[in-house]
Amino acid sequence: MKLYIFACLCSLxxxxxxxxxxxxxxxxxxxxxxxxxxxxxxxxxxxxxxxESLRVDIIAAEGDTIKSYSDYIDEVKxxxxxxxxxxxxxxxxxxxxxxxxxxKPFYSGSKEITIQSxxxxxxxIVCKISNTKVAVEYxxxxxxxxxxxxTTVSNTSGSLxxxxxxxxxxxxxxxKLTADLKLVNQDGNEFAxxxxxxxxxxxxxYKIKYSLDDGGGDxxxxxxxxxxxxxxxxxxTIYYGIFIKQEDLFGKSVPKLAFDGFTExxxxxxxxxxxSVPEHSLTIEAPNGIKQLKVETTSFQFADVPSFDLCNxxxxxxxxxxxxxxxxxxVKDKQELTFxxxxxxxxxxxxxxxxxxxxxxxxxxxxxxNQETTVVFTYEVRPNVAAYVEKPxxxxxxxxxxxxxxxxxxxxxxxxxxxxVKDIKKVTRDTEGNVSALVTGLSAGTxxxxxxxxxxxxxxxxxxxxxxxxxxEVPNINFEDWGTRSKxxxxxxxxxxxxxxxxxxxxxxxxSGNWGAVAGGEVLTQSTTVVATEASEKAAMLTSKWAGxxxxxxxxxxxxxxxxxxxxxxxGAVLKYGQSYQGYPTHLRGYYKYTxxxxxxxxxxxxxxxxxxxxxxxxxxxxxxxxxxxEVISKTGQIVxxxxxxxxxxxxxxxxxxKTEDKTGExxxxxxxxxxxxxxxxxNYKTAVPKTGSFYILIVATSSRYxxxxxxxxxxxxxxxxxxxxxxxxxxxxxxxDLKGMKPVDIxx
Length: 749
Fold this sequence. Notes:
By secondary structure, the protein is mostly beta strands. The protein contains five helices and 55 strands. The strands form eleven sheets. Strands 38, 43, 44, 45, 47, 48, 49, 50, 52 and 53 form a ten-stranded antiparallel sheet that branches. The radius of gyration is 30 Å and the shape is globular. It starts with 6 loop residues before the first strand and ends with a strand. Residues 1-24, 35-51 and 216-235 have low confidence and may be disordered.
C-alpha cells in the first residue's frame, strides 16, 4: 500500500570538477537539482508538487547550512551550484509553515550525498507529505434535531473549525488529534462531545463522520459507534464513524480533575530528613470510566520512565512509583478516585544540595468515550541551607536575581565579567524568605552572584553563574540596502523581476507586496533618497494602490515586513510573518512621514470597528516577538490576520496614526529632515519569564492600516527610515507581568 497521497521526485546530478576549475586549490563539484513528477505517485494528487513553493537547504556534515534557496523554481532549477568536495544533506521542504491549515499539504524529503572530485554522482530524493489530512462530515439526520453544530479539530500544530457547511480538508501534524463537537438542539440547549484520536499517521486521509443514533441498529457506514474504523487501503483513507446517542448528551461530561491543598497547582517545601509537606490530593471524576491515565513528568527521579499509563503500568514504572510511595490503586474503568500525594511528595529529592529542584507532573485522563482532560502540577523542593540563589531570569540588559534567605539583612553580591564585585542591597523579600532584585545596566558577558549577610559574616552561599547574550542583528533595519528578486509571474508564464528591500536576493529578511503588484506594472514599496537624518542615505517609500492586470486585481497597501511571501495570486497572497531572532527589545524606534488619503477601496471583510469608506486612511507600524512564525492570509475569499492573542506571541506593540506627528515626548540630539517625525513603540510583554530557545521577530509598516482587508486609499503614501531597537528596562513594558511594582537597581550606580 502506498503511504502517500502526493509525492515528488528530486533528481540531483553532481558533476565532478577539477580543483582549479572553480576555486584555486579547493576541490569542488557542481550540483544540478531538478524536480520531476512521477505519475505513479500522483494518482490522488490535488496538485502536482512542482506547483508548490519549495525550499532547498544544503547542509554540511557538521550540521551547518551552507546554502539556502527559498524558491526551487526561481533560484535552483537548471542552475549550477558549486560545492567543495565532501558529504552533504540535501533538504527539500515546503516554504509554508507546518501549522494547521486548510488544503495545506507540507512536503519534505532529504538525503545524504557525497561530492567527489572528477566523478559524476547522481541521487534522487522523494518528497512526501509529512502531515496528515482531516475532513469532518455530518449526516443529514443531525439537522432534524440540532439547529447548530460544529467541530474544532486540534493538536499542537493548531486548530481548525469545521462548521456544518465546511467541505474543505485540513492538514495537521501527524500526532494525536482532538475533535470537540458542539451542538445546539431545537430548544436552544447546548451540548458538547469530545473525541481523541491518538494513533494518527502521516500521509493518511482521516474522515470523521457524525451521525445521530436512531436506535435502528448498526450503521455500517458510520462504523456503528466510536471505534468503528474502516480503512480503505486502496485510497489511503481511514473513516471514523461516531454515533451520537441521546444518552451521550446527558450526564456524560468530560473527566474532571480537582486539587486539594495545592496553591496555584504547586506545592513548595524545604527538603529535610522529615520534610513538612502540606496535606494535598488529586481527585478525578470520570462518569464514563477511565480508559487511560497517562502521566508525563520532568522529574529527574523518573528519567528512565518519563511517561507511563496508570491503567497499564510497566514493571519499571510500577517499581519506581512504589519506591516513591505513590498511592497505588486500581484505575481502569473507575468513575471516581482520589490520590493522596503527601507521602509521595516527601520522597522527592533535590538534584543539587544547594539548588531548588522542580518536579513537574502532567496527568492526562482519557475516558471510555475518548474524552480527555489534562492537569499539570509542580513540586518545588528547596534545599535545607541558610541561603541559596537560583538561576536568574536573564533578558538583554537586565536580570531578575532570585534566592532564599530568612536573614533580613541579606543582600546579593554580583561579580561582573571584568571581576568587579557589586553589592545589591536594595532587594525585595517576602515573609517566606524569598529574596529578589531586578538589576539593570548589564551587558553581554558572564556574571556570578550569591547571597551575603550584613549581620552574619559567617553565612555561606554557593554562587551561581549566569550569562547575558548580545541581541541578534536585524539586517537592513535602517533600509539602506535594496536589490531585485525574480519570482514566478502571478499572471502569465515565466518570472517577474521586482524591487526587494534586501541587498542579496538569496538572503531574504524583508519582503513587501511588490511580487504581486508587478503583474500590473505597479511598485508598492521602493527605496527613496528622501531621508530622515544626515546619517541616512536611503529610506523606504510605501504607496497604497490598486494593482492588477488583465481584468484581475485588488487594492494593495504599500508595506514592508520581516518575513517572506509564500504565494501570490490574483485573489491575494499568503505571507509568512517573522524572522529568526534572539534578544528582548523594549522599544522599536524610527522615523516616518505620512500623507493619508480618503478611503476609496473597502473590503467586505474589514472589521466592523475599523475605518469606513470616505474616512481618512491611517498608517500602521507594529512589532511582535513569537516562539513561532505565523502564516497571514490576505485573499478576497479568506482573511487570516496576525494572531496577537496567540500564546506563542509573548511581546508586541503598535503605532497607528492618520498624520505625521511626534508623540515621543523626547528631545532628539540630531535634526530631522524632510518633514519626518520620530516614533517610539513600547513592547508589552505578557510574562515576566523570558522565553528561551528559538523565537522570531516581526516588524511591519504599512501605508494603509486595513490593507490586508483590501481597505484603504490609493492616495496614501508613507515613508519610513532608520528603524532601531532599544533593550533598556522599561517598567511599562512589563506592567502586565509579575515584574510590576519592582524597583530596578542600576548595576553601574
